[in-house]
Amino acid sequence: MAEVSVLNMEGNEVEKLNLNDGIFGVEINEHLVHLAVVSQLANNRQGTQSAKTRSEVRGGGRKPWRQKGTGHARQGSIRAPQWTGGGVVFAPKPREYSKKLNKKERRLALKSALTSRVNENKFIVVDEFKFDDVKTKNVANMLNNLNVKKALVIMGDKNDNLILSARNIPGVKTALTSTINVYDILKYDTVVVSKEAVANIEEVYA
Q: For position 132, what pLDDT does the model report?
């Protein structure tokens, strides 16, 4: 069972915490992690891009000049793709990009991502996030004390003071345990999580 230090917001160790090996100590499945990231990025695409083919562009029904005798190359329409204002070859059309990932695969990918962060010592547990007011400086000081720059901060319960204080810091994102995903865990260098959030994750994914 993996053991991590629980720090306070000043960066001092206050206790030790044993992590559930069923979540934070699984065998890492890189293939499922890859599928989860591809699936999430694909699902975020709107798929609304569209351009007109030569059959959809207005005009061009008349042959611009006769077939022979002009010295020009033969042309059948001023809306052919090689003309300015013509249609687009293989024009993009609205389509569905989403990819399905089974629930078990999604859960195992998340566990693999969390395990990788624990193995790399990039999983920092804080006893609690306690902010009395909305000040960006407070969160910046906490991250400096933890020696962290680019971080995903995971809360157990919604903390408006933390969310509002962190939103102006580049490279920092806040999330609830119910909204964490593989892409964000891998995107940010360090995962900073409250002790309460660890308990929530172990309860949901055990």
A: 87
